[in-house]
Amino acid sequence: MMMRSRLPLASSDLQSLLRPAFQNLATGSRWHRQHTTRVQVHGSSPKQPPQAEPPPKTYFQPPSEPPKTYFQQPPPPSYFQSDTQPPPPPPPPRHRFILPTYVWIIFFSSFGYFTGGWVFEFAFPPILPPVSDSETARYVRNLNAELNRVPIVKELRRYPEIWQESVAYSSMTPEERKGRLTSGVLSGPEAIPVQRIFVNKKDKKVVNVVWFGHAASGWPRVVHGGALATVLDETMGRVTVCHFPAHTGVTATIEISYRKVANPNKFYVIRAELIHDGSTDRKAYVHGSVTPAAKEDEDPVTQAKGLFIVPKIRV
Fold first, then answer.
1. Whole-angstrom Cα distance, residue 25 to residue 85?
2. What CA–CA distances, in Å, run from 219 to 224, 262, 303?
3. What pLDDT, on the 0 to 100 scale, is given for residue 153?
4. Of 55, 88, 92, 223, which is the most buried if we count CB atoms within 10 A?
């Protein structure tokens, strides 16, 4: 029988022999702790279930709603609408937008017309007539030539047997004309140099074509109301000369209405006719009016109605 020898071991040999045993023991105890459950001992607190770990903190939270779009496209039209959907509202009427446009057009057109005319008259004033005798005579001749082109003058000259034409105060001498207002002071080339008279003795009517110059103005670019009233009064008085058997008359009362502004350096037509109702051989009611010669179809600028009588003392 073979006998084992019992020889003493060195410390290094002993460590090498025990190291595997200790490693197995450590491995077994670790596995035992992981795969075994502890038995609840009476009186001890139950084991709490493992809690879920909190989510990590995020310092930049994503937006809870989608970002706003400032340029949103309208939804596409749906061509297949159900019967329950109401029809779209009708478009607004166009006259609500067209009316203000016409109002502004009329306003600016009127403003431009009147402003432009005013600026043109002040920027380019009419040429003043000369003061010498030769130039004055030529200026009056030019006015008479222009008077021949006035439509009312052409019309009345077609009936010379009805309308008798004459130049105002042509039957007076130069000395007699100087002593009167319209034939003296106001007869200069700057005031009232031309008056052409047409008389209808049968119908008791008188037409006077007059030129009002700039010297007859009271306010700049406006004929004086007194100048209009003076010539209108004299033209109405010519009707009474045809009506009264005494061939003379004076103004008793006269009522003048100024309707519009009369601008100087133009021809005007003054009409006067007898009002037969109430007129007799010693008193006469006469109606008169003043209209521009170039626009006779418009309303008169001045109207008048007067009573003329035969004076007791012959004038």
1. 83
2. 7, 11, 20
3. 94
4. 223
Q: Which amino acid is at 298?
A: E
For position 89, what pLDDT does the model report? 81
* 301 burial level (CB within 10 Å; 0-12, 13-18, 19+): buried
Contact between 281 and 245 under an 8 Å Cβ cutoff? The reply is yes
Q: What is the rounded CA–CA span in Å between residue 302 and residue 261?
A: 9
Rounded Cα distance between 258 and 301, Å, is 6
- Dist CA 238 CA 204 (whole Å): 9
Q: What is the 3-state secondary structure (H, E, C) of the chain?
A: CCCCCCCCCCHHHHHHHHHHHHHHHHHHHHHHHHHCCCCCCCCCCCCCCCCCCCCCCCCCCCCCCCCCCCCCCCCCCCCCCCCCCCCCCCCCCCHHHHHHHHHHHHHHHHHHHHHHHHHHHHHCCCCCCCCCHHHHHHHHHHHHHHHCCCHHHHHHCCCCCCCEEEECCCCCCHHHHHCCCCCCHHHCCCCCCCEEEEEECCCCEEEEEEEECHHHEEECCEECHHHHHHHHHHHHHHHHHHHCCCCCCEEEEEEEEECCCCCCCEEEEEEEEEECCCCCCCEEEEEEEEEECCCCCCCCCEEEEEEEECCCCCC
For residue 287, what are the contacts with CB-CB under 8 A and spacing of at least 6? 236, 272, 273, 275, 303, 304, 305
Tokens 């490693």 locate to 23
Contact indicator for 18, 26 with CB cutoff of 8 Å: no
The 10s digit of each residue's pLDDT in 24-70 is 655 555 555 555 545 444 445 555 666 667 766 665 566 566 666 66
User: Structure tokens of 138?
Assistant: 């030529």
Determine how β-strand 195-200 pairs with β-strand 205-212.
antiparallel
